[in-house]
């Protein structure tokens, strides 16, 4: 089979795209499960620590979403069921980060060691 220049470019683009997809695989993020209602999700403005009751109430009673606060940034979590078990606890989240939306597509959440 004879490849034209155009076909070779298309193959090269496909291979480069595939390499990028595999390079951007799941990562791990460590932080505290909190909610997205407070600035930076760290509750400093409220002058309280984000205990489990506070986080759960913000999510269930005030329409917040579970998020991961790593000490520097807040990340939305695609999984909104599993984090309920870890409210206000330090965890390790495995998943793929969407930089534009700051959302982690969660594949696993476990208590941090």
Describe the model:
By secondary structure, the protein is an alpha+beta fold. The chain is built from two helices and five strands, in the order αβαββββ. It has helices spanning 5-23, 52-60; strands at 27-35, 66-69, 74-77, 90-98, 103-111. Strands 1-2-3-5-4 form a five-stranded mixed beta barrel. Strand 2 (66-69) and strand 3 (74-77) form a beta hairpin. The longest helix has 19 residues, at 5-23. It is elongated and about 70 Å long. 23% of the residues are buried. The mean pLDDT is 83.
Count up the helices: 2
Order of helices and strands: HEHEEEE
Label the structural class. Answer: alpha+beta
As a percent range, the share of helical residues equals: 10-25%
Uncertain spans, ≥5 residues at pLDDT below 50? none
Q: How much strand?
A: 25-35%
- Strand line-up in the sheet with most strands: 1-2-3-5-4
Q: What is the straight-line distance between the termini?
A: 55 Å
Please tell me the overall pLDDT. Answer: 83
The dominant shape is elongated
As a whole number of angstroms, the C-alpha radius of gyration is 19 Å
Main β-sheet: number of strands, strand sense, barrel status? 5 strands, mixed, barrel
The overall strand count is 5
């Amino acid at each position: 089979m004879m490849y034209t220049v155009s076909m070779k470019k298309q193959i090269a683009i496909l291979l480069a795209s595939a390499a990028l997809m595999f390079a951007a695989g799941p990562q791990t993020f460590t932080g505290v499960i909190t909610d997205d209602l407070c600035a930076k999700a760290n509750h400093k403005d409220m002058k309280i620590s984000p205990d489990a009751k506070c986080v759960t109430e913000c999510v269930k009673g005030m329409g917040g979403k579970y998020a991961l606060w790593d000490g520097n940034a807040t990340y939305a979590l695609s999984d909104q069921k599993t984090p309920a078990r870890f409210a206000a606890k330090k965890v390790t989240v495995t998943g793929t980060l969407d930089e534009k939306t700051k959302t982690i597509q969660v594949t696993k959440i476990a208590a941090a060691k």
